[in-house]
Amino acid sequence: MEFKDTKAIYLQIADYICDQILTGRWSESERIPSVRELGVALEVNPNTAMRTYDFLQEKGIIFNKRGIGYFVDENAKVKTIELRKKQFLEDDLPFFFKNMELIGMTLPEVEKEYDKYKTKR
């Protein structure tokens, strides 16, 4: 995994885990890699992986069965979507709007580009 300097590594790993859940690679109630396994796989310190798991557990996306490991919560997909929407509205959208304003871009222009994006997918 390639990390960016603009966001804490543990949050980037949390995004990666959320992506696995949203794409269905990790299903609800499924056991996920241990802290150590995740650290090795992503080449990060186990403390960083643990911080990620603590964050996701706090958000109710994963849970720990003591002595067994971490699992995807039954409602992880819904909770992940809610978390992503909140982050998008609070972090990404204001930055996006600021850039739109600075370059004089209009919502119809953005909508046109979004329509192009959807047809490519």
Element layout with pairings:
Elements: H1 9-22, H2 35-42, H3 46-58, E1 62-65, E2 69-72, H4 76-103, H5 107-120
Antiparallel strand pairs: 1-2
Relevant terms:
single chain; 121 residues; Arc Repressor Mutant, subunit A; 2 strands; 7% strand; elongated
Question: Gist?
Answer:
This protein is mainly alpha-helical.
Description:
The protein has 121 residues and is mostly helical. The protein has two domains: 68 residues, Arc Repressor Mutant, subunit A, CATH 1.10.10; 36 residues, no CATH class. Helices cover 64% and strands 7% of the residues. It has five helices and two strands; from the N terminus they run αααββαα. The protein has a two-stranded antiparallel ribbon with strand order 1-2. A hairpin with a 3-residue loop joins strand 1 and strand 2. Helix 1 packs across helix 3 and helix 2 packs across helix 3. The longest helix is centred in the last third of the chain and has 28 residues. The model has no long low-confidence stretch (mean pLDDT 95).
Radius of gyration: 17 Å
Characterize the main sheet: 2 strands, antiparallel
Residue-averaged pLDDT, rounded? 95
Give the name of the CATH architecture of the largest domain: Orthogonal Bundle
> How many structurally independent domains?
2
Q: In DSSP terms, counting alpha (H) and pi (I) runs of 4 or more, how many helices?
A: 5
Strand residue content: 5-15%
Order of neighbouring strands in the sheet with most strands: 1-2
Distance linking N and C termini = 24 Å
H/E series: HHHEEHH
Multimerization status: single chain
Briefly note the structural class of the backbone.
mainly alpha
Helix content: 55-70%
CATH topology of the largest domain: Arc Repressor Mutant, subunit A
Low-confidence stretches: none
Q: What shape does the CA trace take?
A: elongated
The CATH superfamily of the largest domain is Winged helix-like DNA-binding domain superfamily/Winged helix DNA-binding domain
Number of strands: 2
CATH class of the largest domain: Mainly Alpha
